[in-house]
Write a structure and sequence with these properties.
heterotrimer, A mainly alpha, B mainly alpha, C alpha/beta, B: mainly alpha, MetI-like fold, 14 helices, globular, C: alpha/beta, D-Maltodextrin-Binding Protein, domain 2, seven-stranded mixed β-sheet, three-stranded parallel β-sheet, 15 helices
């Protein structure tokens, strides 16, 4: 009896919880098809918001900028972070602890502080570059915009790469690398043939994490975007004006894309899992 | 011999100094100087003038964290007791809303909570309401809970999967009731998860400005709002803004010192 | 801010515009689309192909942007001149000021209000205009040019003007408000929307108390803010452009905003009505300026000149509902807007209108601190809140100590 009751309670709780989590999403999906602009009554089915979304050049430009920044920052962050992780793992204990703790700083720091501190840095740089002196003459003095966004995104992405790759490196058997060297590999060959395949799952997953963090970031971009607008910034300025169901349409599309990606990757995973089982 | 590749970390070390340490140093510098660059404690004093806002946002963030913990604990536990393939699906279901931009999700709550919104309409069918839900501090807390609860569930779940089912059974066999099992077995054994969860919810909650602005009706200011207003908003003053950021950093540091040790292994679990 | 009128009205207006054109435009014109043509006496294409991008920073909903079948004037400008425009928006003068002053972004054309123009001129943040590049300046009404804040219009060209007032939902109130003081009446408790910027909100309290809207002492600031504090428990939310949806959707009964936007709102929802409070109103004139940091001044001047074109001005006015400082534009407006008592009120309102001036740093700072404090201030809730804060702090500390003690006990085994 007790377990039955308990089961029922558990079920109800989970159902209620998921209702809470998905309520806003369901709401947006329904109202993206709403004829009128109001947010209370559903007056009729329409696809016009989807149509106007795809002709809205500001939103499309913002999306394009977001994708560019995400891709470049993820690539650079992954390469730099993986290199750094390898470097850090070969450091002595003390310096390793120092570096990892410093790397941890942007992770625990509130995003708003990362944002404003970078903004202050860029502003200080611009002041310097606009000043006198041979160095200032050589430097570009207007960097706010694409370059600062890129730097900021790399800056908050790199720690995630490092903390993803480091544990994998620790798990790796160092003797494999040594064996490769003993068997006549150059360190470079040993790295590409032995180390990299071993840590590649972590590298790939950190690349994906970087991509998503970067596309989703609002706080840090907000302070460092100059005159440009990424998608989250565009969404923010849209929420400050009149409600437009275009936003709902946009979120519905984004949600569907994410859903497909997750389902496909999941199906792929189970597929390979089964295949491996058959092999064994 | 280890991987002798210390040089590989060099670009990152330079990067870290340039874009992590120097910017924070600039914040500190700004916090203690005036326009002309002279040392002053004025900014801190002025930031202190906003102490009611600080108290308020600490309070709201704490309340949100506690609610998150209470709501997330059963979810994490139930999740960890499911069969492995089911766990994966459930985990994904929890993470899925997170993939959508938080501004959009918060924006949807704006519509849901409004006086003429769906919730009040449905309540109206039962003859209750309408209630004023939007533009209250309750709405801000709701926004925080909704946006950050996955950060609480995941660490809880991770630490709970490590609890052996037989331990819980043993407690029950030895006559412990539900409450006793909870207090003496489950909670103590999931302390690492609780700690990580608390920091991961509290830190973003205390420093947000978009949520309070969208759901709080402009009158429920948080520290994040204050800082934003000093840098890119109504009350332009980089020095005071930096002083506020400094105070926020100290608060976060204090909170971290309570909930996690600066241990290398534990950090990796948290990220 | 701001938005459009019925597209029907617009079409009518444009017909009028087209009919009136031969009379008003002396020379040849270039037809940009069905409704908009600009003077051909100006060399619009001198920057074509030079790969110039203008960063324009305007108020939200403050230009005819292609929505609801209005002409997209920015796109037309791009097509005409071959200059690319990066158009972004802000929601208060102070936000715009902070972004430029801090160096976080540099723009080519901005739209500050009169007091912000004065402040920015004082701080040397605005470039001098070459009015020879803005021949359409001649179309502007003398009443709005050559103002105290910028004698001779060396730095700014007026774009639009408006007044402040009260908008209310006739179905939700029993007694229509007539004065600012009514916003302190318990009748509208929980149903009032206030300005979310310190200058405009301060001005309302000042009007109510019969003070100047430009305080000269910190005592004046404190008095008015105290007044706003007593109002706070009645206010539903402090908003800017969010007011459109809230008023149109019936979320609130009474709101304060700019007259231009009120025209949009009353058109969208006929239940809404507008009143000029009897104590007097705030007049504001928004201007187009070029920041000193702009690298494309001449192209920016071309943009300003384009915005002063009659047809462009008409399109903007019809879309956003604000009042134009240009007689030529006014003549071509639709009758509904042309003789609107909201957009162009009579002398009894204008005689009592006050204009903002720039405040000293000291006053600005006092206003800002007290304003933020007012917004986070909660009547009666404070002691309770602090107690809760203390309690949770103690709990956290207790939890921590308990953990450490346990660890120690375990370690002794």
């Amino acid at each position: 009896m007790k377990t039955k009751h308990y089961r029922l309670m558990q079920r109800t709780y989970m159902v209620l919880f998921f209702c809470f989590m998905y309520l806003p999403i369901a709401y947006m999906m329904i109202f993206s098809f709403n004829e009128s602009k109001g947010y209370a009554l559903f007056t009729g089915f329409t696809l016009k918001w989807y149509k106007s979304l795809f002709t809205n050049s500001t939103i499309l430009n913002a999306l394009w900028l977001s994708l560019q920044i995400a891709l470049f920052s993820a690539i650079i962050a992954t390469i730099m972070g993986t290199m750094a992780a390898i470097g850090i793992s070969s450091m002595g204990r003390k310096s390793r602890l120092l570096v990892t703790n410093l790397t941890y700083l942007p992770v625990v720091n509130p995003e708003i502080i990362t944002g404003i501190s970078l903004m202050l840095l860029f502003v200080a740089y611009q002041k310097f570059a606009a000043g006198e002196g041979w160095l200032a003459e050589m430097l570009p003095d207007q960097i706010m915009g694409f370059p600062t966004l890129l730097i900021a995104h790399i800056a908050f992405n790199v720690p995630y790469v490092i903390f993803n790759v480091l544990p994998k490196l620790r798990q790796m058997d160092i003797r494999l690398y040594e064996a490769a060297l003993d068997l006549g590999c150059t360190p470079r060959q040993a790295f590409f043939k032995v180390v990299l395949p071993e840590i590649s799952p972590a590298v790939v997953s950190s690349f994906l994490i970087c991509l998503t963090y970067s596309i989703d970031d609002f706080m840090i971009s907000y302070f460092n975007s100059g005159t440009r607008e990424t998608l989250p910034l565009q969404i923010y300025s849209m929420t400050r004006k009149k409600v437009s169901p275009e936003i709902y349409a946009l979120s519905t599309i984004m949600f569907c894309i994410i859903l497909t990606i997750i389902l496909v990757s999941n199906a792929w995973d189970t597929h390979t899992y089964k295949k491996n089982q058959i092999k064994n | 011999m280890t991987l002798n590749n210390k040089k590989l970390a060099a670009p990152y070390l330079v990067w870290m100094v340039l874009f992590t340490i120097v910017p924070l140093a600039i914040v500190v510098y700004y916090a203690f100087t005036d326009d002309a660059g002279n040392f002053t404690l004025d900014n801190l004093a002025r930031a202190g003038g906003y102490s009611s806002v600080f108290a308020r946002s600490l309070m709201l963030a704490l309340v949100a964290t506690v609610i998150c913990l209470v709501l997330a604990f059963p979810v994490g536990y139930f999740l960890s007791r499911l069969r492995v393939n089911k766990q994966r699906i459930m985990q994904m279901l929890i993470m899925m809303p997170m993939w959508m931009n938080f501004l959009l999700r918060t924006y949807a709550w704006m519509g849901l909570l409004s006086v003429n919104g769906p919730i009040n309409t449905i309540l109206g069918f039962f003859g209750i309401g309408p209630f004023t839900m939007l533009n209250t501090s309750g709405a801000v807390v709701l926004g925080m809970v909704y946006n950050y609860i996955p950060y609480m569930i995941l660490p809880l779940y991770t630490s709970m999967t490590k609890i052996d089912a037989s331990i819980v059974e043993a407690a029950e066999d030895l006559g412990a009731n539900l409450f006793q099992t909870l207090v003496r077995v489950l909670i103590p054994m999931s302390v690492p998860g609780i700690c990580t969860g608390i920091t991961m919810v509290f830190v973003p909650a205390v420093s947000t400005f978009a949520i309070s602005r969208m759901l709080g009706g402009g009158s429920n200011l948080l520290i994040g709002d204050l800082i934003e207003m000093q840098f890119l908003g109504n009350s332009y003053n980089l020095n005071v803004g930096s002083a506020m950021s400094l105070v926020l950093m100290v608060i976060v540091l204090l909170c971290m010192s309570f909930t996690s040790s600066f241990d290398e292994e534990e950090m990796e679990g948290a990220v | 801010m701001k938005k459009r009128l019925f597209s029907l009205v617009l079409c009518a207006a444009l017909l009028c515009g087209v009919c009136a054109l031969p009379a008003s435009a002396a020379g040849r014109t270039i037809q940009l689309d069905e409704t908009i043509s600009v003077s051909a006496d100006y060399d619009w294409t001198r920057f074509a192909g030079k790969n110039i991008t203008l960063n324009v920073y305007n108020w939200g909903e403050y230009i005819s942007n292609g929505a609801d079948e209005s002409p997209d004037v920015v796109a037309l400008f791009e097509k005409l001149t071959g200059i690319a425009v990066n158009y972004t928006t802000f929601d208060s003068n102070e936000t715009m000021y902070a972004k430029i002053k801090s160096g976080a972004a540099s723009y080519d054309v901005i739209f500050p209000s009169e007091y912000m123009v004065a402040k920015m001129i004082d701080e040397g943040m605005l470039a001098e205009l070459d009015l020879a590049n803005i021949p359409n300046f001649a179309l502007l009404d003398e009443q709005y040019t050559n103002q105290d804040y910028d004698p001779g219009n060396r730095h700014c060209v007026p774009y639009m003007w408006c007044t402040t007032g009260i908008i209310y939902n006739t179905t939700m109130v029993n007694n229509a408000p007539t004065a600012w003081a009514d916003l302190w009446s318990a009748e509208y408790a929980g149903n009032i929307l206030m300005f979310n910027n310190s200058r405009d909100a301060f001005a309302i309290a000042a009007h109510k108390m019969g003070q100047s809207i430009n305080p000269t002492t910190t005592e004046e600031v404190a008095l008015a803010i105290e007044e706003l504090k007593t109002q706070k428990s009645l206010v539903q939310a402090y908003v800017m452009d969010e007011i459109f949806d809230k008023m149109e959707g019936g979320e609130a009964a009474v709101g304060v905003y700019y007259s231009g936007d009120a025209i949009t709102m009353t058109t969208d929802n006929p239940d809404l009505a507008w009143v000029f409070p009897q104590e007097g109103v705030t007049l504001s004139i928004d201007n187009m300026c070029i920041p000193a940091s702009s690298a494309n001044r001449e192209a920016a001047e071309m943009f300003i000149n384009f915005m002063c074109e009659v047809d462009v001005g008409v399109a903007n006015c019809e879309y956003i509902g604000y009042s134009t400082p240009s007689t030529a534009v006014w003549e071509n407006l639709s009758d509904e807007l042309k003789y609107s008592s909201i957009a162009y009120p009579g002398d009894e309102v204008m005689d009592k209108a006050q204009l903002f001036t720039s405040l000293s740093d000291e006053i600005n700072e006092a206003l800002d601190i007290q304003w933020s404090e007012m917004k986070s201030y909660n009547e009666g809730g404070n002691a309770y809140m602090m107690l809760l804060l203390l309690l949770s702090g103690v709990t956290l500390a207790g939890f921590n100590i308990w953990r450490k003690v346990r660890k120690k006990i375990r370690a002794t085994y």
